[in-house]
Write a structure and sequence with these properties.
This protein is mostly helical and 223 residues long. The protein is 68% helix and 0% strand. The protein is built from eleven helices and no strands. The chain starts with 5 loop residues before the first helix and ends with a helix.
């Protein structure tokens, strides 16, 4: 007996908002956010695109929903936890979530509407800073410093993501283009990218995050 296609099997499962959004996340993760359309999503679920409107208002509603799901994967700092390690863990968790969903870092800055996961995330970070003893003014500055690092670094990393197997060839091409005489420090920097990394090295994201948190700790201690 022939096996039914995945779309046919899925079509027998009642549609729900959750199922539509999870399918949208799968498409965006696999083929990029630009691949996401009502028609493509309907095909993925084995239904007509019009059926989706019983569960989502429009594409913007889908984008808002999937970025909220992505942000719900972030581990939040617990109330009363020691602020510095708790916020470090949350920031790394956010960066990891955005790496799993490369479209999410950009969407989180541009989508609006009901965002429960976003609100919980912001409130938890702000609360951690306030409970640690930062003033309302310093909490505002600290929050934006941490958030800018998470979003900015992740957007930069997503744009520059290169297959590690291709890196030596790309580096060789780049080095031929720039030569070696006029840009010695840039050449040195390229070679740093080609070095084998220490497995215990947490990388540039954690390095920058620690600079921010260490600076905030000094401010708090001197207040």
């Amino acid at each position: 007996m022939a096996t039914r296609s995945a779309a046919t099997r899925d079509a027998r499962v009642p549609l729900s908002r959750e199922r539509v959004l999870r399918a949208a996340i799968g498409l965006a993760d696999e083929a990029g956010i630009e691949s996401l359309s009502m028609r493509r999503l309907g095909q993925e679920l084995g239904v007509e695109a019009m059926s989706l409107y019983n569960h989502v208002a429009n594409k913007d509603d889908i984008l808002n929903g999937i970025v909220d799901i992505a942000e719900s994967e972030i581990e939040l700092p617990a109330s009363g936890a020691v602020w510095k390690p708790a916020l470090r863990k949350t920031a790394i968790s956010a960066h990891d979530a955005f790496e799993r969903h490369p479209w999410a870092a950009s969407l989180t800055l541009s989508t609006t509407g009901t965002r429960p996961a976003r609100w919980r995330y912001m409130n938890a970070i702000l609360g951690s800073l306030r409970e640690a003893g930062f003033s309302a003014e310093m909490t505002d500055l600290a929050y934006h410093a941490i958030e800018s690092h998470i979003a900015g670094f992740t957007l930069w990393a997503v744009q520059l993501e290169v297959d590690t197997e291709e890196l030596p060839d790309l580096a060789a091409i780049f080095l031929r283009e720039i030569g070696t005489g006029d840009y010695p420090y840039l050449v040195e920097h390229v070679h740093q990218h080609l070095k084998e990394r220490n497995p215990e090295d947490e990388g540039a994201f954690a390095f920058g995050l620690d600079l921010i948190l260490d600076g905030l700790e000094r401010i708090l201690d001197s207040a």
